[in-house]
Fold these 4 entries.
Entry 1:
Amino acid sequence: MLLRMSINMLSFIVGLIGLASPFINEWVIQPYRFKRDKGRRIAGSYYAVWHTNTQNPPQTWESCKISQRGKKITYKSLNNEHGFDYELKGEIMGNIISGHWQSKLPNENVSGGAILYCTTRGHIVGFWVGHCKKNGVTWGYWGISTDKKALKKFVNHMQTKLSFTSIDMEHLFD
């Protein structure tokens, strides 16, 4: 009888561990590995600017908050000057962030992806691409920094070096 109870208790404990293992991996093991690997920490409050090929004025300024758990990051737009509200969920691998962004506005079906690079000076720069009902496929550059003056220099550099024009991506290969 005692042996049977011990076996039942053991199987119950193994079942609980099996159910909890994804959470243990996400919340305990991965952050430990990230710290052990001396991974990059970017959590904090920033300024951001991004440009879209179909937008006039040519860029959108906003405040943002980046939260981080191990290699997983969440970027949340705040105080966007045009009222956009979106969130990027991604992963940081060395100096590269890749992720998926999604609009948080009701009745908005706007989403896409981004690839960003963390510079040695603490700035984050890169490009994004996405789709919206109004403009179809859109893309642009994205700059994130704690230094607003550096972002203004970034915008000036990007506007002089890159030419963003509207291209009908759906018919580009026709």
Entry 2:
Amino acid sequence: MSAPRTADEFYRRGLELNLAGDVRTALDHFLSSFRIAERPTCAISAANMHLKLGERDRARAMYDRAKRMALSLSQEALVRSKLETIDAQARVAPLVSGFLQEVRPDDPRLHSLRTMLSNILNSEDEAKYRKVKERNPKIANLLEIGSARRLLE
């Protein structure tokens, strides 16, 4: 396969690399594509890779750049959602960390939390999620930011 030269080639290769699980190299390709042609899709894809790599500040910067571009309605909604997720992560991460430091592995509260989160994460029932969100916003935030998935590992 020849080396990519155009923005489109870098972008397509970035998609392939991401699907193959090579997130770091995919990021490099999306950034190269963005440097050649400052397109929203390139910025959003690069931001997504930063997010996958746990680089929230860099992801935020790319989403902010994308936000200043001409976006479709779906891109605008996606960027807004991702920025809200990053903000939620920043607010909730210390709470989760603090809770996990306070409990022992055999603490029944931890088992109950894992069970509840697992049931909700495995459920496609939106009404159930809304009910949880109304009753306990902190748990809902865990679900929204994906911290719950890390708790279950």
Entry 3:
Amino acid sequence: MLKNQGLIDLLKTPENLRCALEISDELEKIKNDLRLSFWEQIDSDLRRGLGEAGLASIWSVGGLDELKKDPSKIERKGVYLIANELNRIGNQLQLGVWQEAASIYSGIMFSPTQPVAPPVDEVNALWKGLAPEWKPKEQRPGGRWLCYKAEDVDISGDNFFLAIASGSAVTFTQPMADAVVDLLCKHHELVQAANGALSVFKSMHDPEWQQEETPSGGPLGVRRSPLQFRLWAEQRGCRGDGEPPGSA
């Protein structure tokens, strides 16, 4: 709208400019509120999906609290699924929806404690089992991404804000959330196996976390010595120091 030169000239006048600047400041706050509404809807849709899939007792939704701190921040923020039995600040896979710059992506990320994709068999098995739509490249993308697909949403565009303001956000949040939950359901065993391997991978570098027990017991609920962790990790494709067998 502001491409209209007559309107621009009108707003540039001293008596109108102050008002225009004040509106501009408030408009940014409104946009941040609308962005947060988008993420709140993603959170709600993921929770609904987990409940319908019967997975709400073993998976939770995270990320929204961090977004609420500063919804204007656009450096890789999102809402995602996390396993209940694992330490929330430890290594694990996160399945969800993220923002990078003005683009939105769905997929699977490694948690921030594991910024480089670890070379473990369980992670490779999950990657190989994914449908082509989640693998825009023939090889794993590296970094924190395990797999992703771009969503047709411009989170900084006028159409995005108008859709959120009109209450129609669910028309594009629900398909994204459903696809993420479906991804988890189709590969649940592989995701759990990868999470188990990743949590051990992390424990090689964190002696205190080695001694933690998960409430549900199982492989991570057994206290192990560093030697036992090393042997268990080697069986799953990584050395006790977190590197693949045979690497220098």
Entry 4:
Amino acid sequence: MPNANLVDLAIGATAILNAASLSKSFVAERTYQPDYNISTTPGLKVFVVPSKVEVDLQGATRNESEETHTIMVGIYNTIGRDDNGVLVTSEVDAMLYFAQEVERLFSANRNVGVGSLIKATTASAYDQSHLEQQEVFLTVVVLDYLVYASR
């Protein structure tokens, strides 16, 4: 049975991540419900989540439509505190650099399966509440792919 284009893009994005040599070691996991439990699996986790499809009916023809498929890459990691209870700045810096590497990896590998990357953004630099309350760095790199779909 064939996969939906969104699923194929998520599978391709996961493969690109797992083949990459970045500043941190990780294994990307394709999932629909990212589960990061600091007590059972601390450390760096990278999740690839198929997110949504938008169909542009204005630009559609009788035989083809333009679709924007969104893949989210969630990046989680525990961050330590120093002797004064302050989050270790260098660890947060390293995670921001890693998120930048992920975004640039996809900018350099624009074509995945049936889609072509049209935009890569980081939803926010990091989630402040996760960082302060749970000592977890969390950011999401959002990848938008253009897919021409036959009708």
